[in-house]
Amino acid sequence: MIRATAAALAALVLSGCYTIRYERRSALAEQGTPREQWHHAFLGGTFVGSAPVDLQSMCPAGVSAVESRVGAGDFFWQAVTAVPFGLVPLWAPVWEPTTVSVTCARPAAARGPSRSLKVALLPLNPLGGVAKETAQLLGDALAGELRKRPGVSVFTQSDVGALLGVEKTRQMLGCGDAGCMAELGGALGADRVVHGSIGRVGDSLVVNLSALDARKSAAAASVSERLRGAGDEAFLDALPALVDGLLAEPGAR
Length: 253
What we know:
By secondary structure, this protein is of the alpha+beta class.
């Protein structure tokens, strides 16, 4: 009997638990535990007992995720303070606590290099049903996001052709090994050469990008992202986080 009663109480408590989560895919999350605080309401949410969560002061660099949660502890206090309420008796908690969990975005200073950086961006390789024209458009969007970062200048395929000539450009853009890419970066005076692919697997968009240190002929950074159940435009939403990863200094991620 005691076990049955405990199980029934546990089921009742768990039935009142819920989580509502909002995320910004474009914002790179800060390191460490999310910041939490209680938010209070009374009489079934009729009266608000605490001020709104001040996200701007809590996260000056922006927000990566916000979660409003009623856990077992929160629901326990709602249940034990419930009273009849209204003309038609409805049970409503006198005290209705919820837990608000906030994950801040990583500060801009931690997202990329503080020095001047020249980046040679190779055309994205379309795979798995992604059209060549789509890959080209998304590559242009990637170049645009790179150019938004202070101190970053970008060479695209058209820039390479203007600087090296058509024949030399054709030879270098057709290579795929680190040595050839380093040679391309050296010819342009670039610090990094960014290359990668975008393709579709099932209902997911898969993005793989790598940055090569042209002076050392060694990998500098790489990012991979699987965007589940997303159209091609999801790549645009993920661009800020992808560029953060590509520009991160080795050992800083």
